[in-house]
Amino acid sequence: MNRENESNSYSDAALESPPLIALRNVSRQFDAGAITALTDVDLEIRAGDCVAVVGASGSGKSSLVNLLCGIDYPSAGTVLWKGQPVRKQADWARLRRTRIGIVFQEFNLIPTLTALENVELALFGLGMSTVRRQTRAAILLERVGLEARMHNRVTTLSGGERQRVAIARAVANEPLLLLADEPTGSLDSSNALLVVDLLFKLHNDANMAIVLVTHDEKLAARCRRQIRIKDGHIVESAGMALVAPSIVGAAGS
Amino acid sequence: MNLAGLARRNLARRPVRTCLSILGIGLAVGSALALMSLSHSIQDGMREGINEMGDDLVVMQKGASDIFGGFIPERTIERVAAIPGVARASGELFMFAPSADGSSVLAQGWPDTSYLWKKVPLREGRVPDAGEHGVAVLGDAAAAALGKKLGDNILILGDTFKIIGIANYTTAVNRGVTLLPLTDLQKISHRPEQVTMVHLNVARGESPVELKRIKTAIEALGDLSASTANEMLDQDRNFAILDAVSLAISIIAIVMGGIYVLNALVMATQERTREIGIFTAIGWSQRRIMASIVVEGILMCVIGCALGLALSFLAALAFPYIPAIGNLVSFRPSARLIVLVMMAAFGLCVLGSLFPAWRAVRMLPAEALRRI
User: Chain A residues with CB inside 8 Å of B281's CB?
Assistant: First the structure.
């Protein structure tokens, strides 16, 4: 996949083109409206963006990430990928297969499989031969420093190692957008630092947009933008946003 | 790694559930196969039993509902034997007759001069002499089941008979018979000068044209029907009922097996909800996820079918050693039945795994990932 032309975050072309993903007046309610997770959220993520989402537990951070990758659907509002609304589950599946990577707090690896096989799973459906899948998975695991443990079952790996497998799996499809939902939440401080450094390295190397959900203010500060969520609303947006000129104009008027 | 490899790992991850599911499928397949085989074996056993006698045609009372049901005057034997082309004919009175202790024996009475006596494959002893009464020849399985040996007495319909021979037939039905002089059986069963059927051989082999001519000639004698052993059993009302009952039981067994398979796969898929959520989260299409579940179902089905087949063969080996079964029927699953049952089981497994697969992919991925 050649990303160079579509993800230069600092180019004028990137600013003029529609955002990578955008939420328009998105709300999410559960239990037939009894619980409101998000209310009228507007958000844009551009190619190469680095966004931290912070907020207390239950504020709606994870709901936001779930909507950004289509594993959950809004009760109201629209999610747009490069300006086009995405509604069908099959379209979301295709995006997650080819354009979006997700890292979860709980790793979400398949326990019966090895590290290599877990990464390989993300390469199914991309038209690769088994050998090519395995080679690519091995390269990715080398990149996250797990070349010596790639044939180990993930249940035999430490938490930090598991999260690195999960990161390798998330970037296997060379995503344009990487979503990381509390990626250090289950890790000790040294492993957390290792994982965070790895995520930022991947973000810088591949110039992929990254959305990082975290409680950690220091970690959030490493991102170009910080979004604070409270009771389902975006209450604060700080840092340098990559906003298209037309939207700046609209906001200023 | 491919979908089959993934399915294999999943099955290995939950060995107890997998083994129980496979056992369930195996028992369902095995019992369906056993039930259907038993039904067919009863007919085949009877057919083989008659064939072992070497009959070309069997004559019965016209309209008799089954092989026990018709009665023919004994003098008809001579009229049948007199038809040109008939090499030899023998009457037979055939019935289940009460013995001692509430048990019953499959009793056959043959005339003193019947050629059938000469064809008895004796293991020990002898057949009755002409005019000899109060004697019996037992099939070896009947002797074993009744605990009788040469020289013992056997009570049939209240009369005592001395066992003078043990026959060594090969078919299960004939191994279970008790052979008596016709006049004795007629007397104790109050059927004087009556037989149930007439066995006959034709002079010129089994030419269909010749058989047809002789059949027509026999039926022209009035109130008689002549048929080959196969035709006779096909018309037998008891076997038709047996067929219907065994088909119904087999359908029940297969449906129960199918429900078990469905239940096993629904439970297995439910346990994998989170895993399915992971597949969805990494972009697997619904079709691929469904395929992974169906492959797992098929894998369990293949192993379950093999187990069921093995169980039915084990039953086939064991049943002859159980007197209550082995004395009456030989149990052999046929290739046709095996293919039929396997195809039904396979179809049910595919359908049984499609349903939980369809349910699984309809779930919201975020919801699936929240499952433990």
Answer: 69, 71, 96, 102, 104, 108
